Known about the structure:
With 197 residues, the protein is of the alpha/beta class. The protein has 8 helices and 5 strands; from the N terminus they run H-H-E-E-H-H-E-H-E-H-H-E-H. Strand 3 (106-112), helix 5 (116-125) and strand 4 form a beta-alpha-beta unit.
Amino acid sequence: MPDNEVPTVIRLQQPAWLRHWLRRPVPAADDRERLEEVLELARAQVEQDGGGPFAAAVYREDTRERLGAAVNTAIASHCAAAHAELQALSLAQQRVGSHTLAALPCVLVSSSAPCTMCLGAIAWSGVRRLIFSTPRQDVEAIGFDEGPATPRWRRELQRRGIAVRGPLLRRQGQAILQRYVERGGPIYNGPPSGTDL
């Protein structure tokens, strides 16, 4: 594309290794097993040096089907919106052929509590439940800026019919964040220089 041409297409693609990873059996309909799977995906993302230490998946509660799974690809895709939750939700919506998951009993399982951007997407996604491992303060403790959020974010989701469970398996999630730091993973959306959020 010439330098002066404005793009009209957004390309978000999950890493090639994820296709093989998704061939594994879907975990039972247990919250912990599903979260363990998502944490394994986040761990694989860190070990592959694939980007942020975040992963998410959408499961149908009635059929136990995995509708979508994703890792954070913000750096690789040159797109700040390429968070794991947004991509997992989008992939699930594409799979069911609708802009919303409201007609199905779906749960979003995430390695971390939602940032401000993902919180808005979750509220409008049609999922009925959110399960997460690490709270915002754990993610912010390694340098990420999770954005402004109301302290009542759980209540706001619940008011919209979305049950929230977490932190769950927090130590496992914290270990993945720490491993990311140890491997020198970039903190690509930290606070602006000279500010203290």
